[in-house]
């Protein structure tokens, strides 16, 4: 599955939300993707599309490049991504924002997933 977004919104540690790390975007098609994790939790949560309740996941792999964010989940967790085992998010995030996006992803995935950087 693939979506396109002009902006990736990231917060590596939200003081107002109990230090939650959060990455979010809205696709040009109107779909929302949200990935969050509290520092004291062993799992991360993904909310995608019209789903009201987030899916709790472990073992997520995320690859970040200057123009693409690839989210990969196990086949047993495909319901989190509307039945797909991966979500490719094509983005045009400002290059100056990539460091904060990377820090956020590292915080979300630390100890529970895999982060791969293709930033160079």
From TrEMBL:
Organism: Pseudomonas versuta
Protein name listed in UniProt: Uncharacterized protein
């Amino acid at each position: 599955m693939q979506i396109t977004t002009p902006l990736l919104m990231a917060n590596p540690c939200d003081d107002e939300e109990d230090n939650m790390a959060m990455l979010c975007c809205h696709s040009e098609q109107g779909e929302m993707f949200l990935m969050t994790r509290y520092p004291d939790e062993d799992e991360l949560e993904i909310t995608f599309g019209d789903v009201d309740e987030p899916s709790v996941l472990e073992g997520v792999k995320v690859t970040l490049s200057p123009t693409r964010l690839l989210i990969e989940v196990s086949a047993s967790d495909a319901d989190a991504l509307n039945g797909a085992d991966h979500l490719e998010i094509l983005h045009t995030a400002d290059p100056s924002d990539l460091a904060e996006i990377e820090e956020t992803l590292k915080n979300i995935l630390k100890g529970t997933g895999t982060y791969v950087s293709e930033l160079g």
